[in-house]
Amino acid sequence: MRIQRATLLMTIIFIASVVYIILYFKLFIPTPEQERNIILILKEHNIRSDFWQTVSAGAEAAAKEAGAEITITGPLQETDVDAQIKLLEEVLEQKPQAIVLAPINDDRVTAEMKKIHDAKIPLVIIDTPVSLKSAPALVSNDHITAGMQAGKVTLEQTKNNPKVVIISDFITSGVSLEREKGVKKALFPYPNSIYGTYYNADSEERAYMIAKTIMRDHSDLNTIIALNESAALGAAKAIKDANKTGLVKLIGFDTSVYEIRLLEEGTLNATVVQQPFNIGYLGVQTVLELMEGKKVKPVTYTNSIVVTKENMYSQENQKLLFPFIDK
Amino acid sequence: MPRLKKRFSLIPFPPFKSIQLSIFFTFSCLILVTVMVISLNSYRSSVDAVETNSQSYVQEIIRQVNSNIQSYIDNMENISVLAMTNKDVKYYISNNSFISKSDRMPYEKRISDLFQAILYSRKDISAIMVFGYNGFNVSDRRITLLNPYTKLEDQSWYKEAKSKGGQSVISPPHVQNIIQNEYRWVVSLSRELKSTDGIRGEGIFLVDLNLSIINDICSKINMGKKGYVFIVDNNGNIVYHPQQQLIYSNLRSEPIAKVTAAQSGTSFNVNDDKGKRIYSVQDTNFGWKIVGVAYSEDLIANEGTIRNSILLFAIIGILFSLILSLILSYRISRPLRILQRDMKKVERGNFDVRTNIEPINEIGQLGRSFNLMTAQIKNLMEEIIDNQESKRKSELMLLQSQINPHFLYNTLDSIIWMGEQKKHEEVVLMTSALAKLFRASITKDKELVPIRVEVEHITNYLLIQKMRYDEQLEYEIDISPDILHYKTLKILLQPFVENAIYHGVRNKPEPGKITIRGREQDQVIIFEVEDDGMGMTPEQLEGIWTTHDKQHRTKSTSGIGIGNVNERVKLFFGSMYGIQIQSEPEEGTIVTITIPKIKE
Fold first, then answer.
1. B248 to chain A nearest CA, in Å?
2. CB count, 10 Å around CB of B430?
3. How far is B100 from chain A (nearest CA, A)?
4. Model confidence over A221-257: pLDDT tens digits?
5. What is the ipTM metric for this complex?
6. Tens digits of per-residue pLDDT, B494-513?
7. Whether the predicted pLDDT of B556 surpasses 50
8. Cβ of B270: how many Cβ atoms within 10 Å?
9. CA distances from B65 to A313, B71, B215, B226, B279 (A)
10. What distance lies between CA B19 and its chain's CA centroid?
């Protein structure tokens, strides 16, 4: 009887330890939490591009905050459509968990996006809206509002007597079109305030010529709204050459070292800047939400900030004008 | 007793019908509660320990960050002291109008060389400059081109230093735009330079620290995947944050109020939708608060593992203990169940039950007592049965030995009648037969007598009856001589012969015959008393037994019933022996008596 009891006890202990070992190996070989991997494809991945570097910084911040891994790639040049398509094809082959894309405006890129969509990979578009059926979620600067902000600054600077010429880059550029729309919306209550929209084809020279011509043609012109950097630089040169600094206000968009200098010297009266950090941050945050299966807003807009000479060195605006990038 | 009951009912103890269930339930409750309490406790304490560890870890890191930043600031401070005490600088910025511009040139060169030398040795410093109130300024560069669009007096570091009167001022990180075409992120230290007498201010000294130094310190720390460092100033403004732009656009916020309220070297926990995190605060001596933020899930990566393993241990422990308690309760209650089962048997009348309980504990003792008790009961029962039997036996013997008074009277009457007839021989014969009969019935010594004696007795009896009934009665005694030496009950046959005469032969108009046979058959001896008298219907036959019962019950002395004889035989020899009666109306009756062979 005593032997039986001991055997019984041994059996129980044995079974218990077997169960324990099985469970231990099943449960506690730490199955690492599914590493989330996001691929960010920029329009331009180039350390000289402050804008895109700041987008990257924002994206990295969001990824770090969520504990996700992020891989950032992109063509060296914003105009290199082929490089971006090639990157997209490579990325698609790797079957990534999620993609955040700043697409170059081209039909072939749109076709690639359709493939990503068909592969059921969560996709978020940043910066540039695309025309695609069942368009993926978009995180972008609100360009119409930015245009309206430019219009409002114009009104402030001209004491509500705007006589404006708009210099845009291409008639097909979606961003410029929206900015123009915003400007016109803001200036709508002032009839005959806009003399026209000219296109400089992203050439500083042409912008200079346009500005020179229109200043000559319209003596009461008091504002040039340059929808992109090259337009602003060309127009600034023309204003300086015509000694009309301060007389003809120049309102620009975005920022660069050159624009900052123009802002400091007063040729550029205001620039409407985007918040690229926020675009990158919200882009990644949106794609993370998609990965978790949450519903996301189809469009998330980031705000623009109007920077003038007076407020350009404020705490907030310094960060926007001089992105601090750890190089 | 009612009070006791009430007290027990206060304990929420379900009324289980079996001890095993009660024990199992109690054990299980105890085990569950104990295991749960212990598990919860150990979980809490291990998590607490890990949390405390990680807090001090974060604090240690922040202390290091603090001392790193502090050392850079101290270095700037030292440079400023160097500039302040430098005679060349003093001379260069003095507003002595007698010193011409060309006189100051060598000083400017010397100062610039000094600043340059410092700058070369320190990668962290981006610029050192002196701005004299006299309009002269000197920097670490050979030619200093100031930004024409920047007003010196508007710069906050310039204004602050001037207002602080000689104390050094640390600016928040900003873009230094004082030099043409240079826009660097720096942290500036500025202070007013005093004249030799130490009363008048003569200029502002500026030294810029590359922000990337602080950024490096803050971003290279390891506080888990998501941990980061930010800096606030005395007024709670964030001077440095890795996600400053998100804070500006209200996409992110920090608990500034808590941070400013926190003492240096302390930490606090925040738990909101961003997750559980530790904020560790360190004050610098120049007015900044360095705050480290670490996410618990990063540092306490194994919090889930701790919980799971403790949970698993608890479950296994509970399962194991439940099985054990099941077995234990079974083992404890098993002897009781055995005892219960055996008791049931005893209840049903089986006193031969012996319960066998293994353990030598209370229940084992109970089992032994039970065994003793049943044995005793059995003995007592047997004793009672024996007593009853012997009592009955003696009672029956008494009955048997009684001579029917009617018979005595009739016989005596017959003797008198024969005496009157002068039939002396018959009188002698009858009287001697009666005497023998009498003697046989009064001898008390033995129950059992040899069959020879019994035959003698019945012969005497029949002799008397024959003399009384004369022609009316005939009889034949046919006993096998082989059985004469076996023993039989005393006065066994007489009642049947008596019955045969009184109920069978006497009522018959023609003479009747009684035959007594005795023989051995296998292991038994069979007596037959046959008469050719009236016989009985089955109902009458039935009545014999029942009237006997009644007679017996009422203790009537009117004769010995057949039932009595039967009972007597069974009492003496066992239930397989006894009496059988066959009877046909108008045919006669045969009484068969079966007894065992008992040798002399």
1. 6
2. 23
3. 32
4. 999 999 988 999 999 999 999 998 888 999 999 888 8
5. 0.80
6. 888 888 888 888 878 888 88
7. no
8. 15
9. 28, 10, 11, 17, 14
10. 12
Whether A324 has its CB under 8 Å from any CB of chain B: the answer is yes
Inter-chain CB proximity B183 and A58 less than 8 Å: no
Return the closest-CA partner of residue A302 out of A20, A41, A58, A36: A58
Of B167, B97, B164, B156, the residue nearest B132 (C-alpha): B97
Q: Rounded to whole angstroms, what are the CA distances from A132 to A284, A296, B102? A: 20, 17, 72
Q: Does A14 touch chain B (CB under 8 A)?
A: no
Arithmetic mean of pLDDT over chain B: 83
Residue with tokens 């009167």: B165
Q: Are B262 and B253 in contact (CB under 8 A)?
A: no
Range of weakest confidence among B65-69, B154-158, B217-221, B548-552 = B548-552
Q: Which of B146, B150, B175, B277 to mutate to test the interface with A (most CBs of A within 10 A)?
A: B175
| Residues β-bridged to residue B520 | B525
Q: Say if the Cβ atoms of A264 and B215 lie within 8 Å.
A: no
Q: What is the DSSP string of B413-477?
A: HHHHHHHHTT-HHHHHHHHHHHHHHHHHHH--S-SEEEHHHHHHHHHHHHHHHHHHHGGGEEEEE
Nearest CB to B225: which of A30, A64, A318? A64
* Closest alpha carbon to A220 in A253, A190, A249, A182: A249
Nearest-CA neighbor of B434 among B406, B403, B478? Answer: B403
Q: Which residue of B has its CA nearest to A276?
A: B245
pLDDT, position B38: 87
pLDDT > 70 in chain B, percent = 92
